[in-house]
Amino acid sequence: MTPTALPLLDQQLCELEQFPDEVRRLFHGRGQCWPGLEHITVDWLAGQLLISLFKEPDLEFIDALRVLSAKWAQLPLWQSKVKSILLHHRSRPDCELEVLWGTLSKEQQVVENGLTFLLDLGNKQNNGLFLDMRFGRSWVKSNAQDKRILNLFAYTCGFSVAAIAGGAKQVVNLDMAKAALGKGRDNHRANGHELNKVKFLGHELFKSWGKVRKFGPYDLVIIDPPSFQKGSFALTKDYKKILRRLPELLTEHGQVLACVNDPSLDAQFLIQEMAEQAPDMVFVERLDNPPEFRDINPQASLKSLLFKRVAS
Taking every annotated instance into account, which residue ranges of this chain make up the domain S-adenosylmethionine-dependent methyltransferase (predicted)? Predict the structure, then answer.
């Protein structure tokens, strides 16, 4: 990242005529479309502007960013809408969150597609909602009516919230991070959902197939794993272990939404793995990513692939 590239960011943000009503990414440098700004993103969190750095820049860059933030804070639109400008040092071991202007509200409530989500801002990598999965959650909401759904690597249960809002009969969320599932319960409560339709399994997946099968079979299985989770999941090695279990998890005409967000793997990785491990699953389509996540190489961005089961 170079200070000489910051005028590009300044221009993008100063040209805003209004801030979105819902949570949105405002600038996506990680899509490699802005030379010199490849490791910076800017998100709008309903009053708080979150700038994230994914690589440690030199002090000159950070100083220039602080100067820009002070300038933005004086713009009339910003003075009326922005409560704080935050700088998230994602590359640092403690993921330091620095307040550049205003006052930090660590607990943040945002709206996406008419649904409420609770964010937790602080010294941690992720705040509770991956914004590039907006269209994926929207698809689930539109296709959940009367379905039994399994949400693997559920995190804070964004897919589950969308599914219940879309009329799902039942959603089973599994994630080894029980604190994240607790936030998922809060997300459901924030939307007035009946929790008797939602299960929360705080287990390591590969030791819990019996518990997962107990609530099946499922009309839809959602697989959205991390690229790497120390001691529990390595994408290229472990994804196939999940796919080969699909026949025992799915209904006769069940669907799978399989996702991968590793820039080194393209969509063909999932298509080939599915063909080898679950040959009765047929690839249907790749869901679009939100336009604000434009990437110079579409295969490096989030891949959300839909498959359906066909009778053998």
Answer: 24-308
Angle in degrees, CA 64, 67, 73, rounded to 5? 140
d(CA 150, CA 138) in angstroms, rounded, equals 16
Map residue 310 onto helix, strand or coil.
Answer: coil
Q: Please say whether the beta carbons of 162 and 135 come within 8 A.
A: no
Q: Say how far residue 252 (Cα) sits from the centre of its chain.
A: 29
* Domains of the chain in sequence order: 3-120 (3.30.750.80), 131-309 (3.40.50.150)
- Rounded distance, CA 278 to CA 92, Å? 40
Q: Which of the four pLDDT bands, split at 50, 70 and 90, describes residue 243? A: very high
Q: Is 210 exposed, middle or buried (0-12, 13-18, 19+ CB in 10 A)?
A: exposed
| pTM for the predicted model, two decimal places | 0.94
Inter-residue contact 20 to 111 (CB < 8 Å): no
Tell me the average pLDDT across 70-89: 95
Q: Are 161 and 115 in contact (CB under 8 A)?
A: yes
Give the dihedral sign, CA 297/299/305/311. Answer: positive
Q: What is the 3-state secondary structure (H, E, C) of 225-259?
A: CCCEECCCEEHHHHHHHHHCCHHHHEEEEEEEEEE
Q: CA-to-CA distance for 311 and 73, rounded, in angstroms?
A: 59
Pinpoint the alpha helices (H) of 74-142: 76-81, 134-142
Write down the pLDDT at residue 107: 86
Is 22:111 a contact under the CB 8 Å cutoff?
yes
Sign of CA dihedral 232, 163, 156, 211: negative
